[in-house]
Amino acid sequence: MDGIIPELRFADKQRLLRRMRKCRDAGQKTRYLVIVNLLRRNVTQTAAALHIARSTVYRVAARFRQFGEWGLLDRREDNGESKLSEYVLGELDRLVRDTPQNYGWPRPTWTRELLVTTLRQRTGVRVHVATMSRALALIRARRARPRPTVGCPWSARRKNRRLRAIRDVLATLPRRHVAVYADEVDVHLNPKIGLDWMGYGQQKEVLTPGQNEKCYLAGALDAVTGQLTWVDSERKNSLLFIALLQRLLAVYADAPVIHVILDNYRIHTSQIAQRALAAFDGRIVLHFLPPYCPNENRIERLWQDLHAAVTRNHRCRTMSELMQHVYRFLQRRHRQMVKRRLRHAA
Q1: What is the DSSP letter of 140?
Q2: Are 319 and 213 spatial neighbours (Cβ–Cβ below 8 Å)?
Q3: 41 with 49: CB under 8 angstroms?
Q4: Are 223 and 180 within 8 A, CB to CB?
Q5: Strand, helix or coil at 34?
Q6: pTM higher than 0.85, yes or no?
Q7: Which residues contact 204 (CB under 8 A, 6 or more apart)?
Q8: Quick one: residue 101, left, alpha or beta (phi over 0 = left, psi -120 to 50 = alpha)?
Q9: Cα R_g (the chain), whole angstroms
Q10: Contact indicator for 287, 220 with CB cutoff of 8 Å
């Protein structure tokens, strides 16, 4: 020890260690650690061990010499009530969930400076930009990529009436009837590039084949059991949709009626699809969702998981290699759903 802090009795050292272990404030605990380290190390060693500046060590030691253990407390506690009250944080949360254009600003995205100005206008509370960073962390706000959406052209009443009718079908499903969510997904050999964790200064590379190929999947997710049914094709047309319906008839051979909830894509309403439905003698009934309502189709989440786990940033060189990974993912998800259903049944 360099004599930068006074000698402490053994009992004082033990009390200091006990209070340090119980401390939950990160800043105050660091100040305790500075004093504890200075008991057996010099200033340079203490700063290196705690990854702080030597000036910080000197400042903490000076406060400890002058005030003792009380000098380790946060002096900002005497500043009064924090500006980041529950009301201010609530207003900030409402701001970040909206767009600046709704508050009279020309730009479409928030900056911390713009949030500081808008928050002052709405609450009268002015905070520093650094404090705004802390406030954003407190409300668990994050910078992320928005999801593009298309508004439903239907009126709210018409849309809600259709969704309510589909929910009624699911809630009053007759015995032995089956309800599934159906949709198609494109699988590209040229991968879609998505977000990934990388090291500092690193930018990962994804080798692409260059010449793109496509394969298409049509899938159905059981609304009750979560069971998966799927078919694939090199073309995304009515024949792919009809192949899925035929597969459903084979999988649910004992079901008198299979209710299929799906979107209004043209292959679902084509003349070929209509003739095929007539040939099924009413065993398949289609329930169309309102336009541009992907969140109401539960199988959409499965396709998102497929892209995240398999197709995004992939390095497969051939379509057959990529499809093998796709099949394994779907089979694994299917087994998980079956096990979950058996657990609930038990």
Answers
A1: T
A2: yes
A3: yes
A4: yes
A5: helix
A6: no
A7: 196, 198, 313
A8: alpha
A9: 31
A10: no
Q: Please tell me the predicted confidence (pLDDT) of residue 3.
A: 67
The backbone torsions φ and ψ at residue 26, rounded to the nearest 5 degrees and listed phi first, read -65, -45
Ordered mean pLDDT values, 10 residues apiece, the chain (346 residues): 73 84 83 88 89 90 85 65 85 93 92 94 91 90 82 92 95 94 95 85 84 94 92 94 96 95 94 94 95 92 93 91 94 84 68
C-alpha dihedral over 51, 54, 59, 64, to 10 degrees? 70
From CA 182, how far away is CA 295, in angstroms rounded?
A: 13
**Rounded CA separation 88/120 (Å):** 10
Specify the long-range contacts of residues 22-28, CB closer than 8 Å, at least 24 apart.
Answer: 25/74, 27/74, 28/72, 28/73, 28/74
Query: Can you give the pLDDT at residue 69?
Result: 81
Q: State residue 136's pLDDT score.
A: 93
What's residue 1's pLDDT?
Answer: 47
